[in-house]
């Protein structure tokens, strides 16, 4: 099994005033999106104390009583707050070894009112993540040969959907027989993740699973389905999974950043070229894609494959 621990993280400054630094950052972004669909971000400006406190808030939420958490149960992908287990209990025959909290935090901010102070921490945290995501997406736009503001403007990111997702993976008595999350790609543009130092995230790269080991105070970033659609397949969403262990609890916090719900996402016209490079994906409203995913089993790129246009 390969590991990413020894690979150099990416220090992102695509909007730097230094032309050489900016050019290198954009080049590194392009290479990471093409080769891996994944990169690490350091020197991001988010305080270590905020990162630690938001993780502690997640622990405290999962330690609430079952009765307290029951108030936040939901069933629809667009319910403002949902907590529970598995992915889609209407479709899955096996429940995965995790508890989760999913909250829609932008364009309207929702959050549980327990534990005390968690909501205020989360608001500050997701605002900082939205800034980082915006900076990365400006650099990615340029790396694709588009205007820096192209992704922001065409996908209406001022009203873009942002989702706070905390996953708790307790020790599993038989980890070889269970998964925290099955192999899948994510909807949206970029997912920005931190974890509690316990490994479990694996990426599918060149048909092999690769363990991810994050340096302290860094962000793990993976590219998602709608970046693949917009780039007409130049940048691929990465298939990943979460594995569990029998000794230690793993906690991860991902913030998903996507288009506005009513935006129709299609390949950028500047990245298609008639018969030589036609559009490879069917245009679809982001909201409809989410509902399509919710109605399917989580399996590799099964939803993206449904809107992929086959070349004749």
TrEMBL record:
<dbReference type="GO" id="GO:0046872">
    <property type="term" value="F:metal ion binding"/>
</dbReference>
<dbReference type="Pfam" id="PF03171">
    <property type="entry name" value="2OG-FeII_Oxy"/>
</dbReference>
<dbReference type="InterPro" id="IPR050295">
    <property type="entry name" value="Plant_2OG-oxidoreductases"/>
</dbReference>
<dbReference type="InterPro" id="IPR005123">
    <property type="entry name" value="Oxoglu/Fe-dep_dioxygenase_dom"/>
</dbReference>
<comment type="similarity">
    <text>Belongs to the iron/ascorbate-dependent oxidoreductase family.</text>
</comment>
<dbReference type="InterPro" id="IPR027443">
    <property type="entry name" value="IPNS-like_sf"/>
</dbReference>
<feature type="compositionally biased region" description="Polar residues">
    <location>
        <begin position="1"/>
        <end position="18"/>
    </location>
</feature>
<dbReference type="Pfam" id="PF14226">
    <property type="entry name" value="DIOX_N"/>
</dbReference>
<feature type="region of interest" description="Disordered">
    <location>
        <begin position="1"/>
        <end position="21"/>
    </location>
</feature>
<protein>
    <submittedName>
        <fullName>Uncharacterized protein</fullName>
    </submittedName>
</protein>
<dbReference type="InterPro" id="IPR044861">
    <property type="entry name" value="IPNS-like_FE2OG_OXY"/>
</dbReference>
<keyword id="KW-0560">Oxidoreductase</keyword>
<keyword id="KW-0479">Metal-binding</keyword>
<dbReference type="InterPro" id="IPR026992">
    <property type="entry name" value="DIOX_N"/>
</dbReference>
<keyword id="KW-0408">Iron</keyword>
<dbReference type="GO" id="GO:0016705">
    <property type="term" value="F:oxidoreductase activity, acting on paired donors, with incorporation or reduction of molecular oxygen"/>
</dbReference>
